[in-house]
Amino acid sequence: MDTQQSHTVNAEAEAHEAHQHPLGRVSLIGAGPGDPDLLTLKAYKRLLKAEVVLYDRLVSDEILALLPAESERYYVGKARSSHSVPQEEINQSLVEWAKQGKQVIRLKGGDPFIFGRGGEELEALVAAHIPVEVIPGITAASGCAAYAGIPLTHRDHAQSVRFVTGHLQHGQLRLDWPALAQSGQTLVFYMGLSNLSLICDGLMAHGLSESTPLALIEQGTTQRQRTHVGSLKELPEGFYSGDIKPPTLLIIGSVVSLHQTLSWFEADHGTTMGFSDGKHARLTNG
User: Fold this and answer.
1) CATH of domain 3-138
2) pTM for this model (two decimals)
3) What is the spatial distance between Cα 117 and Cα 108, in angstroms, rounded to a whole number?
4) Which pLDDT does position 22 carry in this prediction?
5) Is 108 a catalytic residue?
6) Are the beta carbons of 113 and 190 closer than 8 angstroms?
7) Residue ranges of the alpha helices (H) in 128-212?
8) Which parts of the chain sit beneath pLDDT 70?
9) What class of enzyme is it (predicted)?
10) What is the DSSP code string of 85-121?
11) Catalytic residue at 49?
12) Pick the CATH number of 141-273 from 3.30.360.10, 3.30.950.10, 3.40.630.10, 3.40.1190.20
């Protein structure tokens, strides 16, 4: 069989397969920072019709409870130094299920395009000619800050805000320290708990005042939310005792000083913590 005939046969086979299994659709959905009421209406509508769901570690049980009982659910979360499923396998699974005609949901904490690797998944789906949509979610920076009473760009404190990953790359924090250590801005570090000391030392070494306030928001926007406050020099006591557990969000800047008076959500829970307190290798149904 010559090359032209081979291409024709392959095209016919693919067309036959597509006829047998009309393509489904993949929805890359941001689940927000935790509170299920922060889901967008569009995201909620898609969840009600989900057939296959791949979800991350930061997606709350309350949001998973919204899924149809008959939906197939697969946990593909990633924790520090522990990736349940390689990203390439997640990408391929999305493609394969869509080719089976499934309504596939890729459910991510926060927003898919902000430190969520949604861009990589979208690239894989577009390359495979899979119908796909992206439904943004409230990212942790805005959601957690709002629930902690910390306006990220209050005009008396900050003229800009930066979103930064606190992950190590090749054993180092490869950040533009001089740019980050400028006054008049708010810094928001995702995944920064394990490297909190390195972050604070780096900022102080490049000129940011050691008295600059910081907040570690734990389990943000949920009933378990706690906000731990300190400064670059004096970290929250809970950090040293190991009392702070991920997921957390780190906010650094003058705006953190507003938390004490503007903490509307935690006012009813009494969960603000200062430094005076002393205190799967394979896809499986999940």
Assistant:
1) 3.40.1010.10
2) 0.84
3) 9
4) 87
5) no
6) no
7) 140-147, 177-180, 196-205
8) 1-21, 79-83, 170, 269-286
9) transferase
10) S-HHHHHHHHHHHHHTT-EEEEEESB-TTSSS-HHHH
11) no
12) 3.30.950.10
